[in-house]
Amino acid sequence: MITPTEELAAFLRTRRERLDPGGSGVPVRRQARRTPGLRREEVAELAGVSVDYVVRLEQGRGLRPSADVVEALSRALRLTAAERAYLFDLTRQRPRAATEPATTAVPSLARLVADLAPLPAMLMNHRYDILAWNGEMAALLLDFGTLPPSRRNAMWLCLLHPEIRERYVDRARVLRDGVAHLRAAWAAHPDDPALLRLITECTTRDEEFARLWAERDVKATGRGSKVLRHPAAGVLAVDFEVLLPLQDTDQRVMIGRPADDASRSALAGLKPLRSCEGSPG
């Protein structure tokens, strides 16, 4: 598995190479460019650091930039909000939670998930292990209680479960978003062995995942939509929101809502399955 230092080097290179020199505020030179994007000299000038410093960062030579330098590089590379947060995580400049990653549901949050019925809802940790779910979410996706605890993971199900992976109508977009979310989770928790095992398995078993992982896209959004091809209800569209409790920041509640009247009727026609608190093991 690549180390955070190696990832920092690769991430900086890929972000630099994707930039359009004409739109980055650097003088346009007449000589032909041998590589795409900005030159290291141009990034150094925009960030207010030396060229040698940028070279050593991109070579993974063990530097740990200060928060001010990370901010300057973020501006120079025109990073998105998610990419900026990712860079802060890679350089260990963002404060980290002192608690261990959650592996069981907080009881009050598990009760909340149950009480959200008839809306489908589930509780996950940072690596998308499913810690609790209500009967409506089980009816929409899968009876998670039938799975081994180690397979109750939303990313693994989307990528590798033979039934669930074919349920998404726009699977290419769902997969791209999922990989980008997982990369953000890895940067925030680079020493989590279970998360590393998940990424390694997905990279090894799914060529598309491996290709997208190498692109180093980062995303951390709390809402979106998915169109599902349900075996009983047909095609239905679900909007979702992800809520992070202030006190238990490693757990997150995902709530689904029908996106239109037809989807509302389809969801209402599904018989709820058993709800449960589970542990990913």
Automatic annotation (TrEMBL):
Domain HTH cro/C1-type: 30-84
Coiled-coil ranges (or none): none
Classification via SUPFAM superfamilies: lambda repressor-like DNA-binding domains
CDD domains linked: HTH_XRE
PROSITE patterns in the cross-refs: HTH_CROC1 (PS50943)
Signal peptide per UniProt: none
Name of the protein this chain belongs to: XRE family transcriptional regulator
Organism the protein comes from: Amycolatopsis rifamycinica
Lineage: Bacteria, Bacillati, Actinomycetota, Actinomycetes, Pseudonocardiales
